[in-house]
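Open question from group meeting: does this chain pack into something compact, or does most of it stay loose? Before anyone orders reagents, we agreed to write out a predicted structure and look at it together. Recording both the input and the output here so the notebook holds the full record.
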Amino acid sequence: MVSLAHSVAFRGVEACLVEVQCSLAPGLPGFSIVGLPDKAVSEAKERVRAALACMAIAFPSKKVTINLSPADLPKEGSHFDLPIAVSLLAALDIIPRDITQSVVALGELSLDGKIVPVTGALPAAMTAAAEGYGLLCPEPCGKEAAWVSDARVIAAKTLGDVVRHFSGQVPISPAQPGEVPASPLTRDLSEVKGQERAKRALEIAAAGRHHLIFVGTPGSGKSMLAQRLPGILPPMTAMEVLETSMIHSIAGELDEGGISRDRPFRDPHHTSSMAAIIGGGRMAKPGEVSLAHNGVLFMDEFPEYQRNVLETLRQPVETGEVMVSRANAHVRYPCRFMLVAAANPCKCGYLSDPERACARVPHCGADYLGRISGPLMDRFDLRVDVPPVTYTDLDLPANGEKSATIAARVAAARAVQQQRFDGRSDMRTNADAEGEALEEIATPDAEGRDLLLLAAERFNLSARGYHRVMRVARTIADLDQSERVQRPHVAEAISFRLAGATDT
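Structure tokens returned:
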């Protein structure tokens, strides 16, 4: 007889169902695992053997064969420990076989039988619900997986608890969904003195999910402004929470018991590798662009990143998804994020200050910002020059608008966009609009159109730049609660397009 259990193998954010088959056959005693297991899966037999011994369960003196089907799908990770143990216990008639066949299990076993948390519980619960199965997982993962209401989630502490539950001795209550408390917003835009134009750019970027670059001297407040962006972003929708949490679950970022409704804010260091930013590695894990999905990717010291890393950003910024290709894996991750970059105007940082700039002005600025290629710079909707703040401004009281006030306007603009794109999965914000949809919603009035055509001709805007101006103008109109895009909206959008431009 062959006993069955189920588990999952991860391919990006998708969890593929795996059938775990256990066979006990007469012959020389042994324990083998087949079905393209990696090293971590192959070592499961030692952890399972030790866990059974800790429970005083004698390992069978037979040939034990575990087959992970489909056999041509690579199996990676230690989460196969629990389903292997469950199928073996069913083969030994310690727990009912019919029950194990209706459960998707994942979890790592320690040598004393405890079930250790693993990544990917939320995608596994999605697959279990789709197949009509329940989910068995480690106790810390239960709050995360229980958000999938269609799956009955059993979260166990030890392998002994699993045996007692399935045998009916001590049933485990289904896990309840958990949520990480929202992070307190301690940084407010009202603390930023001056920089009104930069604040306005942040508001527009947050309202329409537009990409933004700050260029200014050291200490002018570029990083400080970006760090206050989460305080004005609207809350995530239920669909966005699910999408973001699935990526973070795969990456092992949901380690606080439950999911988070905070929009991601990722700020990698400029020495980060391409695999860290884009994704990859041996197991094709998601990178920072995917971990920032539905949130913000802040890249400080933008020109200091490796040139190949910057160039690989072009496709994810444009399409909202990234394909991580390896010899044994081709994984697609969503990455619809807002890119916020900050850069000094030159290597020394004081290009605009004649008293402090180096002797290579203006060539030092052209060389430094030239590290950002024209096609990549063309993808920034808003380009803002951030001038240094004077000492007199620093002495003034902080009387700017509160983040909550700006956030209310942003939320109202996002609500308009949500209604506008209702029923369209490929468009959620103005930054996503293209083709006929863009022409329909963002075509300005006659005066605005004349101004846009004049700017496109005089400043030699690319087709991409032309359309990005239209999107930004549409967002500005939404912030004004205007149904039509008018000349003032176009004028402001053009002003942000040309500021700080080194290449149009």
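Observations to bring back to the group:
The chain has a mean pLDDT of 91.
The radius of gyration is 27 Å.
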